[in-house]
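Lecture 7 notes: from sequence to structure.
We start with the chain below.
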Amino acid sequence: MPEILDYLPAARSALRAFGLPETEPHPIVKSENVVFRADAPDGTTWALRLHRPGYHALPALESDRLLTAHLAASGLLVPTGRRTTTGAWYAEVPTPDPEGSRLAGLTLWHPGQTLADLIGDDRGPATWPWFERSGALLADLHNATADWIPPAGFTRHRLDAEGLGGDSPFWGRFWDLPCLTDDERNLLSQAREHVLIRFSALTDPLILIHADAHPANVLISGDTLGLIDFDDCAWGWPMFDLAVCLWSASSEPDFAQLRGRFLVGYAAQRPLPDDALEQLDFFLLMRTLMLIGWCADRPEVVGAPEEWKPGLIDKVRVALAHLS
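Predicted structure tokens for the same chain:
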């Protein structure tokens, strides 16, 4: 398994393609994607991302750039891209992966820290104002995308009933994994049936959502909150975005109060649906189911099933009991 330093030649090749041949990449993290920081001679700082092979095709990545350009023009703090010397948004560079190459993209690095870095594991009252502001941030995002008409050629995946729980969902068949016991398969199949029934009753339109707005992707830059990492942005239900942001707090004893502050922030910027609490409950369950499929497909990131599966399975049991 290649380590992050094994990608340095690829990072240097990518920076040459983006017109920064003398800039040395600094390793940041290797997870799904491999990320480097690049300090350009003109004083700007860039995030260089070598995208996971096979996750998004080039048209979908280019559509990510079109969306974030629209959001930036709407006043949101989001990563904005830099083009290569040939005018492309991405460059393909050789890497030590079995696939032999990755698509590399460059985005402006905004100073600051993530909400996750600021609050850590704390979800107590001192953090609730941050969640209220995060709710307002997602409302601003949804206001910016709800009436936007993307240009021709725009393509992103759909997190509708099929994309979340259909026969071939975007994050994998969470109910049909080799690491599951028979009892776990039965439990997750029941959960899948439950969310599919709930999805069939939804009347809210799909809009472009972030789909991964957990605290590690909420950026605090000075007095401004922004969103980073649009790798999972998709057509989806707005309330799924809210559930992703709230999921890390959903097992806390004071979750109802934190959720209330979050929804106050959202509602101050954009109306909530009448059944917002009911939607949140089953989208929180859907987020847990999604994470089971996501983790099973990424042992190099999250480790063996015994490290992540028990906690997620327990959350499914609790959620189903609550929704029944």
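Points to note: The chain has a mean pLDDT of 96. The two ends are 44 Å apart (CA to CA).
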